[in-house]
Every structure is written in structure tokens, then in C-alpha cells.
Amino acid sequence: MSDSHFKPLPWTRLRRGVPCYLPKAVVGARVGADSPALAVMTDFRRFAPATIARDAALDEANRLMTLCDVHYLLVGDEQRQLLGIVTEACTKGHRPLATAHAMGIRPGELVVGNVMINKHDDAEVVHLRDLEGAKVGHVVATLKQLGASSCLVVEHDESDNHILCGAFFLPQIERQLGGESTTEEVAHTFSQVVNSLGR
After folding, report:
1. DSSP state of 50
2. Helix (H, G, I), strand (E, B) or coil at 94
3. Could you tell me what percent of the chain has a pLDDT over 90?
């Protein structure tokens, strides 16, 4: 389509002396138990999660988490396959020091692949097709049955591969329902780490 079909939008400049504030973080619109389940799903198809390579330095991972204001990064390869997840707990404090000591290397030599949690460590998933017609109450009931504060949402491509398309975070859902989250847990496995992402 030719550019001549589009007229420029009205525009102006910021006025000197008039403050311009950064936006406040928005958890999401208020929902009810009967609201559609997709209303509380963190949709990775619309808002891509922050990712990092397995061979990236831990300092790079920490900088990226700070820049993106997140507490985790998904680890992927060149084919965009999910390899695992790395969190602040993996990259800071005692854990990386212990890993470096066990490997006989200096902490500065560690890369993400040395400390990440591998993907197939009991990660619970819900299939996107099963969310059609589902309500927020169904999601909450599922998470409570799993004893989890979160789970991933996947769909399948034409080759029947898993495609990560979103996640449910119980603390976020509780805030959207108007309540306060009381979820407390220490993350050890991939599943438990994923369960803590919404905090």
C-alpha cells in the first residue's frame, strides 16, 4: 500500500516546564471469578518475556533483569527452544558462589547455563485449547489442586511441538480479584521457580 494513502497524525512537542511522569505499573483490570480465564493470563504472544542465551555471563543476566524490571529470564537457544529459567536467586548471593566452588572456577567465569534451572524439572502446564470457555475460578481451582502459585500455558504447532504462549500467576490473579496474595514458597525446582514468577 502506498504511503500516499496515509495522512500524518496530529503531533506536538512536550511543553517546557510541564512535568511528564513515567507510568505506574498496572497489574491488570479488576476481574471476578466468572470472568474469562484469558483475562488473567500473562500473554507471551502479546508481551514477549525477557530471554537470554545459555552462554551469557551472570552480570549480563543481572543487568537485563534490572533493565526489564523482572526477577527471572527465560533461557533459549538459537532455534528459540526453551532450555530453562534463570532467576535472581540463581545469579546473586550464595548460590552462584557455591556453584563456582563446586566447579572449581571463579564466580566471574560462571555463565547462565551453569546456574539455570532446566526446563523439564516437573513444570506444570495448561493447554491453551482447554481455556476456551474457562473462567478465572477454574484457573484458581486448578492452581490450588496443583498446590502451585503459577503454571505455564502452551499450545502446539503443526509439528505438535510445544509453544509457550503464556502463564497464570496466582498472586497476580488474587490482586486482580481485589485480594492480597499470601503465597510464600522457596523455589528449588523449575516448577517452583515458575510458580514464583508472578510476585
Report:
1. P
2. helix
3. 37
CA 86 – CA 163 distance, rounded (Å): 19
Cell 484457573 belongs to which residue? 139
Integer angstrom CA distances of residue 122 from 41, 141, 157, 160: 21, 19, 22, 20
C-alpha to C-alpha distance for 83 and 141, rounded to whole angstroms = 29
Task: Report yes or no: 180 and 198 within 8 Å, Cβ to Cβ.
Answer: no
150 forms beta bridges with: 169
Q: In angstroms, how far is CA 150 from the centroid of its own chain?
A: 10
Q: 41: which 3 cell numbers?
A: 493470563
Beta-sheet pairing, 72-76 with 82-87: antiparallel
d(CA 90, CA 86): 6
Helix residue ranges, H only, the chain? 58-68, 88-91, 94-103, 112-115, 136-146, 170-176, 190-195
Q: Using an 8 Å Cβ cutoff, are 150 and 195 in contact?
A: yes
Cell of 188: 528449588
pTM: 0.65
Contact 112, 120 (CB under 8 A): no
- Quickly count: other Cβ atoms within 10 Å of residue 165's Cβ: 17
| 45-64 confidence digits (pLDDT tens) | 998 888 999 999 999 999 99
